[in-house]
Amino acid sequence: MNQTIDLNEYETQLVVRPMKIDDFERLVEMQRKCFPAMQPWGRDQIESQLERFPEGQVVVEIDGVVVASSSSLRLNYDDHQEWHDWKKSADGGYIRNHQPDGDVLYGIEIMVDPDYRGMRLSRRLYDARKEYCVVHNIRRMIVGGRLPGYHKHADAMKASEYVDRVMNKAIYDPVLTAQIANGFSLQGLIPNYLPSDVESCGYATYLEWRNLDFMPKSKRTLRRIVDSVRIGAVQYEMRAIDDFDDLAKQVKYFVDVAGDYKCDFVLFPELFSVQLLSTLPNMRPGEGARRLAEFTPQLLELLAELAVAYDVNLIGGSHLVVENERLFNVAYLCHRDGRIDKQYKLHITPAERRWWGVEPGDRLDVFDTDCGKISIQICYDVEFPELSRLAVQQGANLIFVPFNTDTRNGYLRVRHCAAARCIENEVYVAIAGCTGNLPFVENADIHYAQSSILTPCDVTFARDGIGAQANENIESVVIHDVDLELLRRHRVSGSVRNWNDRRTDLYEVIEKQPRG
């Protein structure tokens, strides 16, 4: 792999966007695949929905193809409302009863093309609905959920017993299980909800999601604004493996965990892919590093697919890459919407240079994500304070540090410098490293790590400036929520204000390499 890899070949273009009337044919095609026994939408129904409430009609598009959709309307909550009657609440799909100032978002349909299931597309649609509720101060969301798995059990149990078993995880239902996972609470069981729905035997569940950010208009309410981001940092155990599939299973496990816990980011360690050298014959370190680079397309494809499938922004540690005969240490950022970015390691340790012949990159990038701007600094890079200064100047509030150290001394250099970057710049820093051993793999035989998520040091943050940390040298994933709003307030009213109190009249950090 001597040429620079074209990341476009591995990207997936995933977009959550407003529905358009041009989507109609594709919506009907999906409905026939999802609900074969039910009458699909008519064009006049979709036109009516888009005319009355265009913000409530959303689709997910992958590589230009609509693969999921969500339809809804707004109503005012009424205890006497016949929420159990879909035709009445949804006006038979025409939503002519939509109330622009309603305090309930009523979901009338979500569907995901069966060929694209397992990619957490329904979560993206529910998140879009929740975001609408928060932005427009809507008290709750109500849905009537199908029970498409019930027909398989209808002869053996009542619908109420089926629902109880699904709630207790004894039975999996494609719709109800997903709705509970997305924060809905069960309010009741509705018979004859959609009589034509033979899979559900006409039954549906009545579910509700409460908007905890809702502010009643009738009185002033003081509330604390929170801008939360959930981070997962993987402490990855190095062990001898037989082939690439063994590594892929280990990586997928951790991404699955991060997805289940609804992480916004999952961070892997630097050069965890060196594990693949255990599958190759013994060779000189420099030759082995370049053989390792041959796995780049497979690894990149794996990371990109997992980021989209598990709805996380995946920072794939780092990997050795050959470009134009030169060897680099590169971190790939696989966004959950399918985009891919990369950051080269800028400071190369003497061991990397001596054993493998790694060369440094020549620019620091700050990446736009759906959770704000972030910086990736690979191991040794975080030990140079100028990089974090430059990143925060460009708007980064989160710094991710994949590292790989062999001894406690090396680990502590990374850890202490990462903690210092938090204090100097009033940012959060996540660090993730490898543990375990790789016998007979030179320059990667032993590892020491304690992955953690670090914060500034002030009374409003975690004690000791440690949001969360793993136990030393035990394979695990540490998960923690960080509050970006807290950073903003700290810069204004903290006990000390390191970022604002810089003496830029005496010194400054200047980036010499032109950006772009």
Automatic annotation (TrEMBL):
Alphabetized InterPro entries for the sequence: Acyl_CoA_acyltransferase (IPR016181), C-N_Hydrolase (IPR003010), C-N_Hydrolase_sf (IPR036526), GNAT_dom (IPR000182)
Keyword GTP-binding: no
Name of a matching Pfam family: Acetyltransf_1
Keyword Metal-binding part of the UniProt annotation: no
Residue span(s) of domain N-acetyltransferase: 14-213
This protein's UniProt keywords: Hydrolase
Ranges where the CN hydrolase domain occurs: 229-484
Entry-linked SUPFAM superfamilies: Acyl-CoA N-acyltransferases (Nat), Carbon-nitrogen hydrolase
GO molecular function term, any single one: hydrolase activity
PANTHER family: HYDROLASE YHCX, NITRILASE-RELATED
This protein's name: Bifunctional GNAT family N-acetyltransferase/carbon-nitrogen hydrolase family protein
Biological classification of the source: Bacteria, Pseudomonadati, Planctomycetota, Planctomycetia, Pirellulales
